[in-house]
Design goal:
Layout lengths: L4 E5 L3 H13 L3 E5 L2 H8 L6 E5 L7 H11 L4 E6 L4 H9 L4 E4 L4 H32 L3 H16 L3 E7 L5 E6 L6 H15 L6 E4 L19 E9 L2 E10 L10 H43 L6 H20 L5 H30 L1
Parallel strand pairs: 1-2, 1-3, 3-4, 4-5
Antiparallel strand pairs: 6-7, 6-10, 8-9, 9-10
Helix pairs in contact: 2-3, 5-6, 5-8, 6-8, 8-9, 8-10, 9-10
């Protein structure tokens, strides 16, 4: 399994070959270009976790490349290497977001260790966001509370400007469940049109595209002067069943979604799908709890009626006890629900004991 993707930017062939050979041996996927201009072109369509770049290059130097990367893909860590290091250059690089500044000739072991640490930083950001989303999924059982958290987190991880979640209701109609767009934002209408189009055509594969290169099947959805520059649509599915879509958009002219974003977004979509399943389970449990509570109340009432046949009260108490055991045995039942069900079961068992005591007393007489 590859550790991550590294882009090498250096006009010295020997440096490129040295770094490529070393990092490929260590399990990285490595690609290279000879100058900053080529690097910018490459990063328009491909994603790198780490960029190792020379500082002094014609047309686009290392500092300009760094600024471009931090605008387009802030999550990418940049290590600058140079044979003409000055304190001023180093400070400029660090102020503009470089992970580190290395002087030639460099120690290859020290550079590989530096790359390891830089990659750990990017992975830590992702793990932190996943941890936050997992906490949200398992601490909230209401979608209206959960979705704003999820959209905010997925925006942060993918560096998107906006995120929207559309769901399919019981009547097989798609509707906007949550969005970070302002109420009257024109982009919101464009995303709603995109959702309706994909849903009507039963699209269940993720896609991403720049608006100036919109697929022909989606032509006419985005206005010529749309503020959206890049979009991603990801179906929300669980066990093969379509639940809705997650939409992400970017507005910066130089910022685009790339294939590598699909992996990160896919993790969040799986969390969203699971949260929907959890909520639906909880809603069913709430109905069952209400039914059991009402039956329990009826049983309490029956216990106070002397002429009520003991057999009927006995059957009702047993029914409550069995149903309670069934609900508690279901998968992923929240602890709060278990506590309520257990209390109802205890009341039913107490009623059952009272019924038997009354019956024994009657038979004794």
């Amino acid at each position: 399994m590859q550790k991550g993707r590294i882009l090498i930017v250096d006009d010295e062939q020997g440096i490129r070959e040295l770094l490529i050979n070393e990092f490929v041996k260590l399990g990285y996927e490595v690609f290279s270009v000879i100058n900053g201009e080529e690097a910018i072109n490459k990063l328009q369509t491909e994603k790198a976790d780490i960029v190792i770049t020379d500082m002094n290059m014609p047309k686009v130097d290392g500092l300009e490349l760094l600024k471009f990367i931090k605008e387009k893909a802030p999550e990418t860590e940049v290590i600058i290497i140079t044979g003409y290091a000055t304190v001023e250059n180093a400070l400029d690089a660090m102020r503009n977001g470089a992970y580190d500044f290395v002087q030639k000739p460099f120690n290859i072991d020290e550079l590989t260790a530096l790359v390891e640490k830089a990659l750990e930083k990017t992975e830590l950001k992702m793990l932190l966001a996943l941890y936050e989303s997992s906490n949200a999924v398992f601490s909230s059982l209401k979608l209206e509370d959960l979705f704003p958290i999820m959209t905010s987190l997925v925006k942060k991880v993918t560096f998107s400007q906006d995120a929207s979640i559309f769901l399919i209701d019981n009547n097989n109609h798609i509707y906007l469940a949550s969005s970070t767009y302002s109420r009257y934002a024109p982009q919101k209408k464009e995303i709603e049109a995109l959702a309706l189009k994909l849903f009507s055509e039963n699209k269940n594969e993720p896609l991403f595209f720049d608006i100036n290169n919109t697929p022909s099947s989606l032509s006419g959805i985005f206005e010529p002067d749309s503020e959206i520059k890049s979009a991603m649509a990801f179906p929300i599915m669980l066990n093969g069943k379509m639940m809705g879509y997650l939409f992400l958009t970017k507005t910066a002219p130089s910022s685009s979604f790339v294939r590598a974003d699909l992996k990160n977004v896919g993790v969040f979509v799986a969390q969203i799908a699971q949260s929907i399943a959890n909520t639906k389970l909880y809603e069913k449990l709430e109905v069952k709890i209400a039914e059991l509570e009402q039956t329990s109340k009826d049983l309490d009432h029956m216990r106070g009626i002397v002429q009520m046949p003991s057999a009927k009260m006995n059957d009702t108490a047993l029914f409550i006890s069995e149903k309670a055991d069934y609900i508690v045995s279901m998968k992923d039942v929240p602890q709060t629900v278990v506590s309520v069900i257990t209390e109802i079961k205890d009341r039913a068992l107490q009623c059952l004991k009272d019924i038997r005591d009354i019956k024994d007393c009657q038979e004794t007489k």
